[in-house]
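Exercise 7.
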Amino acid sequence: MPLLEPNPQALSPGRKRTPAPDRVPDLQARGTPRRLREELAALLGPEKVLSGVSDLVRYASDASPYRFLPQVVVVAEDVDDVSAVLSYAHGKGREVVFRAAGTSLNGQAQGEDILVDVRRHWVGVEVLDGGARARIRPGTTVVRANAALAPYGRVLGPDPASAVACTIGGVVANNASGMTAGTTRNSYRTVASLTFVLPGGTIVDTADPAADEALARAEPRLCAGLLALKAEIEADAELTDRIRAKYQIKNTNGYRLDAFLDGTTPVEILRGLMVGSEGTFGFLSEVVFDTLPLDRLVSTALLFFPSLPAAAAAVPRFNEAGALAVELMDGNTLRASVSVPGVPADWAELPKDTTALLVEFRAPDEAALGAYEEAAGEVLAGLDLVAPVASAVNAFTRDAGTIGRYWKARKAFVTAVGGSRPSGTTLITEDFAVPPARLAEACAELLDLQARHGFDAAVAGHAAHGNLHFLLAFDAADPADVERYASFMDDFCKLTVERFDGSLKAEHATGRNIAPFLELEWGPKATELMWRTKELIDPDGVLAPRIVLDRDPQAHLRGLKTIPSVERIADPCIECGFCEPTCPSHDLTTTPRQRIVLRREMLRQADGSPVEQRLLEAYGYDAVDTCAGDSTCKLACPVGIDTGALMKEFRRERHSPREERIAALAARRFRAVEASARLAVGAADRIGDGLLERVTGLARKAVRPDLVPEWLPEIPGAAPRRLPRTHRPAAVAVYYPACVNRIFGNPDGVPGPSLPEAVVAVSARAGKPVWIPDDVAGTCCATIWHSKGYERGNEVMANRIVEAAWGWTAGGRLPLVVDASSCTLGIAHEVVPYLTEDNRALHAELTVVDSLVWAAEELLPRLEARRTVGSAVVHPTCSMAHLGDADRLTALAEFCAEEVVVPVDAGCCAFAGDRGMLHPELTASATAREAAEVTARPFDAHLSANRMCEIGMDRATGRRYRSALLALEEATRP
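Solution. The predicted structure, written as tokens, is:
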């Protein structure tokens, strides 16, 4: 073991706790049974088999209220891996569940045997026919697919609220729809073709003209059985009418029996059946969608009503006026949404019964939108709206910012309400539909039913389509509370079916939640047809048992997960997974959701249990060390959970008192540290990369990888010892060169001025001279200590930089321009919690400006581009995302280049100061997709605005990244 290896017990919850009823048993502390692990490793390769108890626990939870521990997790890379796993399962009598994003709300992404991850290696979009169609791999998020289609003015039909995280495979497998899809734009109606793997291993491409012929040879029994079922259904006029009627409203409960009516051949029938089959019929390896026009002109209103039934009664009038979306949010939803950034604070004061409709019209041209707005105005004139708070304006707007905030509040429904639930309770998301004309009546009945069972649920949904969602919170560890939930579900399902002939699952698919009530909705004849279809396609029951069909009337109460209270910053998490796509480590170790899931399992355990010990042993590297600490998870989370901050706190808890003292000493003597670092970098040029890589490699093994950085060939030489001379009297801003730009020079092979020289020159050129204080050496933004969790060192440097900046800027009269985006974020925001009370007052008087903002807003209007390059690709950093100034990077690049590309897969590079040197594998994983996009073609310039991120991208792409400020100076140089 290396010296100074942290003690895993430092992160033990340590408090007295009662073991939870759903804790992982001690017998499973060793993870996957040895024989199963070895057989799959021999079949697929050990790198594709995840078998530790930490691996199993992090895959056991999804966005649903259920939790099932798999026996093993397989990370499939291609169709051959999937076929091999299915063949193995058939031979061994095992079961298989496919999992992509894990955003399903009813337990569809959970299995109790072999769980196959089909997200990591299954991302990609191919735009076809000028955007009219798109070929998409199943691990691709909806947002990523739409980003590829946007330049063509096209969009996918399904638009679920979880589009930022949910993947195409899950969207099709659940027939998820969303805000505008209804019954005409969902997957069933817009999928052009599918490629899938059947349980027996047969691969079917429904677009292949010879597909039926090939299927008949490979699966003759299946083909005959499908045609026989089709004939049986078509011969029963009453059943046929019933099937057609069930899909007049949104319905994802059970299998799509109308596939037998819509398809004429076995392949066509299978194409329809696969949509909404929830992974129980096969694996979707590729989907081709027919896309829809992206109408870019939008007019939207948030309208407030005195009650839920009153709002529901207005919905048909907006439908008649042509609204594309009519979304409903009740008072509980509106008040809970106050936790979402950008939502008006006065929503917290809304009366209990207040309900809002979010109404949107979209059009391809001005004339069409004007006509819609005129029709909407007529509807508004006849409504009795209320304005109980100042922000309730009850008017249509075309302002993109306002519209974006409305939709952010609506899409945060589950997470915002879930985040405000009582600590320790489990969240259930229900999803049903009734004929739209009866929505108001259904709302009144739902409110009465909730009151009778002691629930005060939050209600929201796609009112235009008669589709509502509501959230219930209860204690899954309390048998009496579980019984209360069970009684409510019995009454709710009967009400929906018997009173309204509605759908028990409108768009979230059957799942474990509604499987016991399938026959209540469909009746015995149709339900038995579904069982026979499952037995025909999957005769051995290999795929996803109990997820759509289950004869156990109590199945929806099995596997309910308890939610132990964890650290305050993470406790609101409902495990929705919205944070995962943005996380730099999501393809390497764990995601923010999984970090919290693992923590909760520790708290389910008895103190010191074998399972807890194994989880703690893995948590140090998997969760804490390989967290980039960039906190982009906070931006992706609708309620702003900052798992990065939690991991920094855990780093602090692992520090010994000696480490804390050394870190604080380094902060106090940072002037000497800075000078030594610059000398060391300069000496490295003479020593050579090879020797340094060997020396640091040995040191990392002897000491600890998380303490000793690995030398990377991409590290540039030293910066000039002296900063450029400037004059204070004429300066309009104070320029603060970040310590990283005082230590490291330009990228190797990039001639010209240093970054500080360039900033000074280009500012003077624009008539906006800046002044560099003489005593910047020895100061820092404190991010070095903050990111590593060194509290005392962080306090020392945070207070030093604020005191210095206040003096430099004459008490805040001049702006402080900072030339590294992460340092701007550090000084502007991250230092604040560590300041003394007096220094917080000083900080409040400072104006901290990122150099991108300074250049784009103050310099560009006064500069002339004398030379430009043909093309530039930019790397927006995570700090820019937090600061909201990534568009300024693009603006600078557009000034300097004729073509500017922002990679669709751009994200945090995870270099994170020196974390990319401590864990190079983290940066390699985080940048893989962006690097592939960048290296797919040549660019004349590669631009960013943070030196360490530029080094990370240099390493990832083999290209030379540099600051956009250097490019700006070159472009405007006389």
